[in-house]
Amino acid sequence: MKYITWLSKNLSLSIPLFLLLGLATGLTLPTTHLSMLIAPLTLLMVYPMMVGVKPKQLLVGGDNAVQGWAIAINFILIPAAAFVLGRIFFAEQPELALGLLLAALLPTSGMTISWTGFAKGNVPAAIKLTLIGLFLGSLLTPFYVKMLLGSEIPVQLGLVFQQIVMFIAIPLIAGQITRTLLVRKHGIDSFQKSYAPKFPPISSLGVLGIVFVAMALKGPGLIESPSLVLRLLLPLLLLYGINYAISTVIAKKRLNRGDGIALVYGTVMRNLSIALALSMTAFGEAGAQAALLIALAYIIQVQSAAWYVKFSEKLFPLKE
């Protein structure tokens, strides 16, 4: 368990490591059979995070401003930015534009809560942001993709919804059953102290597994075309840069320190694991190409989140 915990606490190192391991595997071994691991690895990633979720937290008030700004950024501004960047950089490659759009349409992950805590932000607000973002992203993503890219990429709404049910609804139900059983057997205090902390690190294994599989399957293609890596990185860097800039300005001008930090991590941290799983299961060959871009987004997202924690005390000074 200590090795799993180390991997979870050091994602800025472990994700690049697993990317390299996946690339080495793809270059030396047959990997087509690895695609069958995407679904179970995604369930492994999502389920442990759902054990700690309390749906009644959606009913807690007092943070309407941060929730409203997050919805506007996550479902209007950032999807629009991703669509425009896709048109600029991938006008002739709609499958790569799909990857950029999927990375933008599924906001928040378990790391939203963790990074908000690391930066001493409003964790309860981050939890609510995560639940709302996951719920709205699940409902809106199929329609956004159909509306924005449906003329260029076949979009089967039923299949996309089927995958979302598998990757979100089923883990949520399983997580709530697990939580109920553990609390009933051991009590809420014992659950919070002894059991709840053990689940999030397990989630990291799913993240790392998906990164490994994505690179094993698609990494050799990147090696054959290093110029493609640069073409993918530039729009990704611009998308994350725009996201950080918008959320930071709004946070500093409109919100208190705790809510502001929650807003930044509730908008910048995209649910790339679910985006990657969707791309590789619901969109055929176009999704397989989109997975390349989403896999690279992991590196930018985790590294930038870690650096933002370092600068958060200067951007949002703690009151003495």
Can you tell me about this structure?
The chain has a single domain, classed as Na+/H+ antiporter like fold, CATH 1.20.1530.20. It contains 14 helices and no strands. The protein has about 325 residues and is mainly alpha-helical. Helix 3 (about 40-50) runs antiparallel to helix 13, helix 4 (about 65-90) runs parallel beside helix 12 (about 255-270) and helix 8 (about 155-185) packs across helix 9. The chain starts with a helix and ends in a 5-residue tail after the last helix. The chain is about 80% helix and about 0% strand. It is globular. The protein has helices at about 1-10, 10-30, 40-50, 65-90, 95-105, 110-120, 125-150, 155-185, 190-195, 200-225, 225-255, 255-270, 270-280, 285-315.
- Distance from first to last alpha carbon: 38 Å
Q: Examine the secondary-structure arrangement and name the CATH architecture.
A: Up-down Bundle
Radius of gyration: 19 Å
Question: Globular, elongated, flat, extended or rod-shaped: what is the shape?
Answer: globular
CATH class category: Mainly Alpha
Number of helices: 14
Strand content: under 5%
Number of strands: 0
Largest sheet properties: none
Q: Could you spell the SSE succession in H and E letters? A: HHHHHHHHHHHHHH
